[in-house]
């Protein structure tokens, strides 16, 4: 009633979507024609893709065009194409709904896939944004835990099979291909640096060089901004969600508000995810911009009911809610 414009949720969502897509493509054109430098392109597009991530999240919850699947899927397709380092959004929908039902458990595949619950180390830092090699390294332990959860009666066999398949097939083909291109580019940059310092003469093959050269626009316009965006998002989300000793169904123990000042550089590139995501766990069907509008009032209610704010001890506790696990 206070903000009548919010009745037009579809129009607002599509307008934000169209504006973010158009500006990101315009920035790519300006970089390609030499008008803006690469670092400006990467920072601006990382910010815009952070907005698109929030839109994708809302679309996964059917908040826009619920009765028009064509437009809804059109938007989902574009946000995946412009964020190809992420999971297929149609597969992710199943994993995300599972996350809400079983947040913080051993079989919360979505959060465990972004390092939640692991002890902080150089390995976790390096693989924070990586859904391919990072998940390849943790898949054995994850599947072992899922099997144990089924045996203990905490998870249905059919559900376990589904989330494992969706977690794997959600990476095919776009996510894996995008990561491989980024790996080749990174390896080429490292070799060039080594050669400039030590003149080793080690270079990639002409074929791989040609692939990188052909992919250059995609690398700078899409992949590098998403690498920055994805690192920022995964760092924030994996540390605001609790893991391992969360009481089943206790939403208060699932998340915290993470908005301490030093996280601001990361928050910018995931549209201040740490500020508002805990609200989403309590009121699921609110769009990301409504959560920001209602943030201050929501904080008052959350504080009064025991939701934590800036519990930095979670970094030492491998994201456990309690000082010692139950």
From TrEMBL:
Residues annotated as domain Fatty acid desaturase: 37-311
Membrane spanning residue stretches: 12-32, 38-55, 165-191, 211-228
Single GO biological process annotation from the record: lipid metabolic process
Superkingdom as given in the UniProt entry: Bacteria
Keywords of this entry: Membrane, Transmembrane, Transmembrane helix
UniProt keyword annotation of Membrane present: yes
Protein name: Fatty acid desaturase
Organism the protein comes from: Faecalibacter rhinopitheci
């Amino acid at each position: 009633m206070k903000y009548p414009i919010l009745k037009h949720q579809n129009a607002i969502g599509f307008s934000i979507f169209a504006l973010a897509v158009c500006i990101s493509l315009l920035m790519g054109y300006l970089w390609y024609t030499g008008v803006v430098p690469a670092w400006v392109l990467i920072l601006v597009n990382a910010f815009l893709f952070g907005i698109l991530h929030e839109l994708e999240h809302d679309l996964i919850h059917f908040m826009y065009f619920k009765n028009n699947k064509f437009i809804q899927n059109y938007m989902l397709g574009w946000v995946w194409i412009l964020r190809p380092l992420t999971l297929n959004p149609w597969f992710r929908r199943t994993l995300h709904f599972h996350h809400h039902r079983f947040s913080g458990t051993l079989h919360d595949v979505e959060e465990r896939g972004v390092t939640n619950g692991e002890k902080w180390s150089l390995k976790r830092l390096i693989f924070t944004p990586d859904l391919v090699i990072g998940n390849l390294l943790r898949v054995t332990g994850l599947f072992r835990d899922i099997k144990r959860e089924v045996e203990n009666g905490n998870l249905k066999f059919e559900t376990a099979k589904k989330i494992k398949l969706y977690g794997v097939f959600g990476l095919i083909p776009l996510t894996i291909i995008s990561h491989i291109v980024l790996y080749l580019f990174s390896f080429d940059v490292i070799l060039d640096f080594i050669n400039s310092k030590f003149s080793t003469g080690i270079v990639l093959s002409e074929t791989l060089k040609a692939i990188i050269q052909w992919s250059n626009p995609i690398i700078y316009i899409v992949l590098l901004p998403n690498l920055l965006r994805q690192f920022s998002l995964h760092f924030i989300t994996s540390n605001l969600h609790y893991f391992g000793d969360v009481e089943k169904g206790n939403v208060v123990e699932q998340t915290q508000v993470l908005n301490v000042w030093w996280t601001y550089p990361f928050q910018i590139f995931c549209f201040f995810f740490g500020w508002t995501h805990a609200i989403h766990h309590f009121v699921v069907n609110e769009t990301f911009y409504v959560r920001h509008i209602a943030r201050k009032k929501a904080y008052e209610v959350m504080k009064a009911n025991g939701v934590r704010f800036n519990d930095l001890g979670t970094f030492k506790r491998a994201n456990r809610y309690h000082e010692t696990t139950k």
